[in-house]
Write a structure and sequence with these properties.
The protein is of the alpha/beta class. The chain has helices at about 20-30, 65-80, 100-105, 120-125, 160-165, 180-185, 215-220, 240-245, 290-305, and strands spanning about 5-10, 30-35, 50-55, 85-90, 110-115, 140-145, 170, 195-200, 210-215, 230-235, 255, 260-265, 270-275, 315, 330-335. It starts with a strand and ends with a strand. The structure holds S-adenosylmethionine. S-adenosylmethionine (SAM) binds near residues 14, 88 and 201.
C-alpha cells in the first residue's frame, strides 16, 4: 500500500482566524486529525466529516498520551496510506514537541511537511497590546519555558544569566513556578519595578490580562491567580499596553494592578473607567463568583491602598467574602477626611 503523508500543522494560539491558509488546506484534506488540548474546537469542523478525530491532548502541563504513543499513532495511520494532520497549538516547533514527532517520522521514512503556526509567544502579547520589541524600549526578547522537567537534576533554564541578558522575557508554561522564577530574576539583577503582564487564554473571548511588577510576582503573599494557560511578559514593553491595548479594551475584562490609579469595568457600562484609589469606591460588576482572578485582584487593590505610604485613604472591606456575581461591595475606599 502507498505510504500516506503527515502534516505537522500549527493551529495558532486560539483565535481560529490565526490559522494559516496552508494549515487549513491540509486540514480540509485530512483522513485523520490528531489534535491537542489548546486547539480551538471550531477548527476541527474544517476537517471532512468522515475524518477520524483523535484527541492527544494534555490535561496539565505534564503529558497525557505519552509522546511515543502519539508518534506511533501518526506512523501507523500514515502506513495505512492516510493523510494525517497533527494539529498543534501555536507553532509546532515552539515548545510543541513537533521536533520529536518529525524525528520519529523521519526515522520511519514517513513523508511529512511542517506548516508553521502563529505562536502564542508572540500572538498573545500582541492581543494584549504588547509589542515584544520596540525601538525605544527593547531590542531583544527570549521565549523561555517556565516548566521544569522533574526528571532532570539541574534546571534547564539558566535564569540567572537570562535575568539581564535580554530586554523582554516571554515565559510559556510553568504558571505555578512564576513566583519562584520572578524571585530568581530579581535576585540576579532584574529590577523589581520591571512591569509584568500575565495573559490567560490570549486571543480568545476569555482573554484576561493582569499587569503588576516583577516584585509583586515574586511575592508569595500576593496571591495572584496563576492558572494556565498563561503567557507571561516581563519587560518595559509591557508599559505600552496602556496606550496600545485593542483586543480586550471593548470586553472590559482588564484589571490593572499597581500605581495610584486603577482601571476596572465601570458598574453600568462595558467600558473601563480609571479611578483614583483614595477617593473612589472600587467597583467591578458582572464578575462570576468563581472568577478567582478578579477576586484576587480586587483584594490586592484593597491591600495596596491600605499600605500605601501617605495615601489619604482607608479601606473598609464591606464583606470578607465576595458576594455573588457583584464585586461592588468587595471593598470600599473612602477619603480619610470623609
Ligand atoms: C506546550 S506550550 C505550546 C506552545 C505552542 N506551541 C505555541 O507556539 O504557542 C503551551 C503553553 O503555551 C502558552 N499558551 C498557548 N496558548 C495560549 C493562549 N491562548 N493564552 C495563553 N497562553 C497560551 C501557555 O503558556 C501554555 O502553557
Amino acid at each position: 500500500m502507498r505510504v500516506g503523508h503527515v502534516w505537522l500543522v500549527g493551529a495558532g494560539p486560539g483565535d481560529p482566524g490565526l490559522m494559516t491558509v496552508r494549515g487549513l488546506e491540509a486540514l480540509r484534506g485530512a483522513d485523520v486529525v490528531v489534535y491537542d488540548r489548546l486547539i480551538n474546537p471550531t477548527l476541527l469542523n474544517e476537517a471532512p466529516a468522515e475524518a477520524i478525530r483523535i484527541y492527544a491532548g494534555k490535561l496539565t502541563e505534564s503529558h497525557g498520551l505519552p509522546q511515543e504513543d502519539i508518534n506511533a499513532l501518526l506512523i501507523a495511520h500514515a502506513r495505512r496510506g492516510r493523510s494525517v494532520v497533527r494539529l498543534k497549538g501555536g507553532d509546532p516547533f515552539v515548545f510543541g514537541r513537533g521536533g520529536e514527532e518529525a524525528e520519529a517520522l523521519a526515522a520511519s521514512a514517513i513523508p511529512f511537511e511542517v506548516v508553521p503556526g502563529v505562536s502564542a509567544a508572540v500572538a498573545v502579547p500582541a492581543y494584549a497590546g504588547i509589542p515584544l520589541t520596540h525601538r525605544r524600549l527593547a531590542s531583544s526578547f527570549a521565549v523561555v519555558t517556565g516548566h521544569e522537567d522533574a526528571t532532570r537534576r539541574a534546571p534547564h533554564v539558566d535564569w540567572s544569566r537570562l535575568a539581564t541578558a535580554v530586554d523582554t522575557l516571554v515565559i510559556l508554561m510553568g504558571a505555578r513556578s512564576l513566583p519562584r522564577i520572578a524571585a530568581t530574576l530579581v535576585s540576579c539583577g532584574r529590577a523589581p519595578s520591571t512591569p509584568v503582564a500575565l495573559i490567560r487564554w490570549g486571543t480568545t473571548e476569555a482573554q484576561e490580562t493582569m499587569t503588576c511588577t516583577l516584585g509583586d510576582l515574586a511575592d508569595p503573599q500576593a496571591a495572584l491567580d496563576l492558572r494556565p494557560p498563561l503567557v507571561t511578559v516581563i519587560g518595559d514593553v509591557v508599559s505600552l499596553r496602556d496606550q496600545l491595548r485593542w483586543f480586550d479594551e471593548e470586553a472590559g475584562r482588564t484589571f490593572d494592578l499597581a500605581g495610584p490609579e486603577v482601571a476596572l469595568p465601570s458598574p453600568d457600562a462595558n467600558e473601563t473607567e480609571t479611578i483614583e484609589l483614595d477617593v473612589a469606591v472600587v467597583a467591578a460588576t458582572d464578575v462570576p463568583e468563581e472568577d478567582r482572578f478578579a477576586v484576587a485582584v480586587v483584594r490586592r487593590l484593597c491591600e495596596s491602598a491600605r499600605t500605601r505610604d501617605g495615601a489619604a485613604a482607608v479601606v473598609e472591606p464591606v464583606s470578607s467574602d465576595v458576594p455573588g456575581r457583584d464585586l461592588r461591595h468587595a471593598c470600599h475606599l473612602s477619603s480619610a477626611e470623609g
